[in-house]
Amino acid sequence: MSETASTSRQVSPDSGEIWSMAGPWKVADGVYRLPLPLPNDSLRAVNVYLLEHTGGLTLIDGGWAVAAARDTLESGVTSLGYELRDIRRLLVTHVHRDHYTLARLIGRECGAEVVLGGPERPGLEVARAGTEVRKDLMAADLLQAGAAGLADAWRALHSAPGDEDAWGDPDRWLQGDQLIPLGLGHLHALHTPGHTTGHYVYADRPAGVLFAGDHVLPTITPSVGFESPRARDPLGDFIRSLAKIRALPDMRLLPAHGPVRPSAHQRIDELLAHHEQRLAQCRDVLSAGPVSAYHVAAELTWTRRELPFTAMDVFNQALAALETMAHLDVLVARGQARVRNGGTPSTYTTPASPGR
Ligand SMILES: [Zn+2]
Q1: What's the confidence (pLDDT) of residue 11?
Q2: Cα–ligand 1 centroid distance for 338 (angstroms)
Q3: Burial class (CB in 10 A: 0-12, 13-18, 19+), 62
Q4: Which pLDDT value is given to residue 41?
Q5: Is residue 210 within 8 Å of 244, Cβ to Cβ?
Q6: Distance 142 CA to ligand 1 centre (A)
Q7: Do 207 and 235 contact (CB within 8 A), yes or no?
Q8: Would you report the helix, strand and coil content of the chain in percent, each value rounded to 5?
Q9: CA–CA gap between residue 23 and residue 35 (Å, rounded)
């Protein structure tokens, strides 16, 4: 269809319907958005961003290591007059499969440097350890959340065979916030733990654009607490990381999933408000008595469509149970809830019920 044929000259679409169509879509001078396909994934696509600069190309995120994504990346790069080997560096926002694995393979193929946040190292080791280790860790977290049935169902889920090459170490680990030279200028690499412990965003301050990875997504809320090994306070980390980026001058939001949006601040405010609302809902459920995270999750509605918990599949129920545990742990940190016992599962109660 001619009206949707992508060329490098078109402006990146803001429509929720067409954001995932193959690019490249120009988003700023020397910056292109390339949506890459994902296998069997409701997220539809992952945006990688190609930056032109003296000395070659830099890619922000790499995509999921499947042939269709590699082909889409290669044709996008070619249509801009480059070859894959012009990619000199891949800055990966976090260790999840849809961001890291193709970056690692392309880096090896093209002799390009792959960069990842240092605190992702334990997550990468778990990813590399294989399906059974990952299932055991996730099942243990689900048991802690009081979701024994989900833990069993999780173990029974089919999982794709591992790809050891795609889970190799990066060439460089980031530590703290760093400046990364880029042509005549630089990018700010900013540590934003929450979605994962070693998540980074990359800010081009003069251009006013924020490569946000999965830290700030325009149409969905990034998952929190769904990471192995599990962080101690993933939602607390996430809220602090949102505030950290909110304290910077506003930038255009260039997310890993979904369309480009004019204001990162606006979306951060929406995400913060969403989590405060969820925290209040969790407190309401807690006031009815000591409960597990799973119990609280089952009392809430889910997604923008306000689905009952039982209407979701095993994967999304597990996501919901662990995210609820993250909310309850923030209430504990704020003194608005407490953990009644130290065992498994964790049982949460209000601070005003010392006798129970
Ligand atoms: Zn992602």
Answers
A1: 52
A2: 32
A3: buried
A4: 65
A5: no
A6: 22
A7: no
A8: 40, 20, 40
A9: 6
- pTM value is 0.93
Position with higher pLDDT, 210 vs 290: 210
Q: Which two tokens stand for residue 115?
A: 């960069």
Torsion, Cα 191 194 195 200, to 10 degrees, reads 0
pLDDT over threshold 60, residue 13: no
Q: What is the pLDDT of residues 306-342, one digit of tens each?
A: 999 999 999 999 999 999 999 999 999 999 999 987 7
Structure tokens at 20: 């995932």
DSSP result, 77-129: HHHTT--GGGEEEEE-S--SHHHHHHHHHHHHHHT-EEEEEGGGHHHHHHHHH
Given a cut of 90, whether residue 131 has pLDDT beyond it is no
How far away, in angstroms, is 110 Cα from ligand 1 center?
23
In angstroms, what is the span from residue 200 Cα to ligand 1's centroid?
Answer: 13
Span 66-84, pLDDT tens digits? 999 999 999 999 999 999 9
